[in-house]
Design goal:
The protein is mainly beta. It has a single domain, classed as Ribosomal protein L14/L23 (Ribosomal Protein L14, Beta Barrel). Helix content is about 0%, strand content about 45%. It has strands at about 5, 10, 15-25, 35-40, 45-50, 60-65, 70, 80, 85-90, 105-109. Strands 2-3-5-6-9 form a 5-stranded mixed β-barrel. Strand 7 and strand 8 (about 80) form a beta hairpin. InterPro entries: Ribosomal_uL14, Ribosomal_uL14_CS, Ribosomal_uL14_sf. One of its GO terms (molecular function) is structural constituent of ribosome.
Length: about 110
């Protein structure tokens, strides 16, 4: 898992947020002295650090859509992105705004 609590990541949608701050990760029960961390596809609780004033200083759910740490697929290919990014969602997990920023993916065999 790539993004521990306290990480600041890019916001990849057109809500007006620039950065998301990871507060907590959904579904992590925890282990003594281990930081809860999120990976691609995980839902987490976030606040907006840079962006529109109406989005800042509010706690909202978000989902990780890109991570720098390589992830191994079943066919042996490692896939990773050039940055860490997330999108703001509602409680059901549906995106608040639908346009995503450009995605650049790299693979390694």
């Amino acid at each position: 898992l790539a993004l521990p609590v306290g990480a600041v990541i890019n916001c990849a949608d057109n809500t007006g947020a620039k950065n998301l701050y990871v507060i907590a990760v959904h579904g992590i029960k925890g282990r003594l002295n281990r930081m809860p961390a999120a990976g691609a596809g995980d839902m987490f609780v976030a606040t907006v650090k840079k962006g529109k004033p109406e989005l800042r200083k509010k706690v909202m759910p978000a989902v990780v859509v890109r991570q720098r740490k390589p992830v191994r697929r079943k066919d042996g290919v490692f896939i990773y992105f050039e940055d860490n990014a997330g999108v703001i969602v509602n409680v059901k997990g549906e995106m608040k705004e639908f346009r995503q920023a450009f995605i650049n993916c790299k693979t390694n065999k």
